[in-house]
Amino acid sequence: MVMPETLPDDWDRWRRSVDVGTYDDRWDRIAARGGNPHGEADLVTALLTGVDGPLVLDGGCGTGRVGIELARRGVGVEGLDPDADMIGVARAKAPELTWRHGGLQEIDDDARFDLVVLAGNVVPYVVAPQRPAAVAGCARALRRGGLLVAGFSLQPGWPGLPEYDTWCADAGLVLDDRFATWDRAPYVSGGDYAVSVHRRD
After folding, report:
1. Is 157 a member of any domain?
2. Structural domain count, the chain
3. Quick check: is 33 in a domain?
4. What are 94-129's pLDDT values in tens digits?
5. Of 61, 122, 124, 152, which one's alpha carbon is 20 to 30 angstroms from that of 167?
6. DSSP labels for 27-76?
7. Tell me, what CATH number does 102's domain have?
8. DSSP per residue, 2-22
9. How do residues 146-176 score in pLDDT, each as one tens digit?
10. How far is Cα 42 from Cα 94, in angstroms, rounded to an integer?
């Protein structure tokens, strides 16, 4: 299990600036302005079309926004996050769901999930030496043909797509698709954000 004190400096700086009690307000404001705060859930449910009784792992689930929306749509979901405070908020919001405190690299689920979703810069917020193991943990959790869907910013000091694709390939995953946004805008080389869809082959 990865405890919060072993998270990277980037996470620590971000986390010190965030009040978990009001963190979800930003999504409410997006919805109030007529925006869509559930792009991640939209993509996940589209990718699961035709899957009977799908089960999703929301990795780095934070306060549970994505997982709770997926459950509302009838998708089976479990959440995992190394931040105990955020997991506590998720549990309070949806106590009927399964929320686990831990890191991706420690996933010991054996091929249970149809899809693992990593939304909100989860990959860069894993301690750098543990990122390949985190991707491998996600791959272990997938059933054959299951999907790993990860969206993160591309910026100096954070993982690039060649690195990430290598970690995925080493874990037995192949690239299915790549978008610039969760609403599936085409990715153009050099973009500053990517949503990658890899399949367990």
Report:
1. yes
2. 1
3. no
4. 999 999 999 999 888 778 999 999 998 999 999 999
5. 61
6. HHHHHHTT--TTHHHHHHHHHTTT-SS-EEEEET-TTSHHHHHHHHTT-E
7. 3.40.50.150
8. --GGGS-HHHHHHHHT--TTT
9. 999 999 999 999 999 999 999 999 999 999 9
10. 20
